[in-house]
Specification:
The chain is an alpha+beta fold. It is built from three helices and 14 strands. The strands form four sheets. Strands 1, 4, 6, 7 and 8 form a five-stranded antiparallel beta sheet that branches. It has a four-stranded mixed beta sheet with strand order 5-14-10-11, with helices on one face. The protein has a three-stranded antiparallel beta sheet with strand order 9-13-12, with no helix packed on it.
Length: 244
Amino acid sequence: MNLGTMVGQMISVIMMMVMMMIPAHAGDTNPVFEPCSDTKVQRLDGFTFGLAFAAAKDSFFFNQTQLSPCDRRLSLSTKGAEVALFRPKVDEISLLTINSSSSIKQSNAGGYYMVAFAGRQYAARSLPVLVADNSHTITSFTLVLEFQKGTLQNLFWKKFGCGSCSGDLVCLNNTDCAIPNSKCKGNGGSIGCDLGVQLAFSGTDKNDQVFNSWYEVAHLRQYSLFGLYSNLRDSLSSSFGGLF
């Protein structure tokens, strides 16, 4: 199955999910659900983008140039790549989670990497960011989507250093807090190693209205949405057993 087919099938599922949620998102004026298509958005529209995962950073490069996962020249389907699609509300701070039971968490010595992507003309894509290697898993990320007049221009990962590393967390490369793989629940440990991506927006929408969510995240970053989610999940897990 090629990446285009994979994305197409996943989009079908997401479209059904979004259609079920229309009454709660009546203000959504964006009709584009395909992450590899272009669109212009305004605040509170839905916006579809993807996260691609591969077992080597080089998987996202062709002739030493990084391409969008939408570009068939990458042949990601032959490299065991996986894709997750999301449709958050534009300029709302969101927390995206990916269950650690997914095979994306199975890593090798070369590391497992993640790229965020959307659009065709600009083929916006983030730099590959390390998710896991054979020793550690990074579970908390911050992604900023940058728009100009409603068109996505760039996606970039923001790093806040290791000041919040505590307990079982260790500092990797002076930029990320990571969990030793041996302590993840999937490997018999006691810590949930689900991925959490805190999402924010910068720039302007198609009406030249300025996005504020990145400003809010940058100034309130000590209140990690993923940390709050993890604490709540752990609390519920202790109360309701295997429900989570």
